[in-house]
Write a structure and sequence with these properties.
2 domains, two-stranded antiparallel sheet, 10 helices, 2% strand, disordered N terminus, transmembrane helix, transmembrane, membrane
Length: 262
Amino acid sequence: MSSSLTSLVPSDVKTLSEFGNFREHSNPNIAVDLQSKNLHTSSEFFFLQPVYSLSMVTLVTIFGLLGNITTGLVYLSPAKTFWHIVQRGSTEEFDSLPYVVKLLNGYMWVYYGLVKPNSILVATINGFGAVLELIYVIIFLILAPPRMRVITAILFGILDVVFPVAVVLISQLSFNREMQINISGFLSLLFSVATYGSPLSIMIPNGSGFVLGTAQLVLYAMYWKPKQPKRTSDNVEDDWQHEHLIADSGPSLKNNESRADA
């Protein structure tokens, strides 16, 4: 069966996309032995029929839209916090690093969605998120204390201006489209991890301080009451000699006092 089906497919068809194009211009009900054609799949036979293709496209679209909705909610989650910041007119003790990293992450995903075919959903939702993160960073640049404002400006210039421009220029001028997709995808994943790990910059110092402070309290509880030093034999002998000298000098002191009275 597989040999007869395989003979229906031209020898230059090596990928699923090429087979899809061939199927559209020939018999759409052709079944092909993918293993004999070097088309990677988990089953021995794969039936590429219009119903299957339609269902897969539908599932991809549905899950893509659900992913966009959840990603949009993640980008919108700090909106309430920044509304209160604007009302108070100060960012107080909030740190700008997570939002600077999220902005860079949005840039990278937008670039990935633009260079990778059929990834318009990735580009649009992360473009929306990048706009929101840019607004958050601008609020920091306006309302943060002077020191935090300077730090935010430096981070924004390096991570959100210089680095993305360098990545786009280098990848566009030096690599082909496939390598551009790989580079942008790797950087997007890397900065996604950094986005969710950026709160550790606050948690780790405070966590280590908590552990060290707890250790100090435990040590204080164990040794808060000082122990009395033990009297050694040398100390006892010195005390005895001191008392003996005081006793011997008693009469002479009395005689000196009587002479002074006379």
